[in-house]
Amino acid sequence: MNGTLLLRIAVAFILLTHSVFGIFNNGINDFGNLYLNKVGFAPFGLYIAWLIKISHIIAAILLLLNKYVKLAGFVTIFIFIMGIVMVHFPEGWFVVGGGRNGCEYNFLLICVLLAIMYPSGFSKKINS
């Protein structure tokens, strides 16, 4: 098993568990109605919350199938960046320990997704 496969499985597991748990504990509805609608997305907050979680489920499946990995990664990274800007950055860096609900976890997931999307790095090699 190569490292990229392991990372794809790990991120897919995280996206799936986070999303599915939110479906069954009313977390998605609460996020849409009690947060997104109140910060200016009304009356669409609930729909946006569901689109976010559905996109996470689709991204997880695509990562497991190793299909459209860059598309899944870009969409998920966009969502994570918006989560950092709107929710986590105001709380600081640390998720636990030195703070609560900070942005370090989203930052790590963004880096992992970039490593999955670009396993050979970002530079183009010129053949001479």
Distance between the termini: 33 Å
The helix fraction, in percent, is over 70%
Largest sheet: none
Number of strands: 0
> What is the string of SSEs from the N terminus onward?
HHHHH
Mean pLDDT, to the nearest integer, reads: 94
Uncertain segments:
none
User: Which outline best applies?
Assistant: globular
Query: What structural class do you assign from the helix and strand content?
Result: mainly alpha
List the helices and strands and how they pair.
Layout: H1 3-24, H2 27-41, H3 45-65, H4 69-88, H5 104-117
Short structural description:
The chain has 128 residues and is mainly alpha-helical. The protein is 72% helix and 0% strand. It is globular, with a radius of gyration of 16 Å.
Q: In words, what does this structure look like?
A:
- This protein is an all-alpha fold and 128 residues long.
- The N and C termini lie far apart (33 Å).
- α2 packs across α3.
- 72% of the residues lie in helices and 0% in strands.
Main features:
128 residues
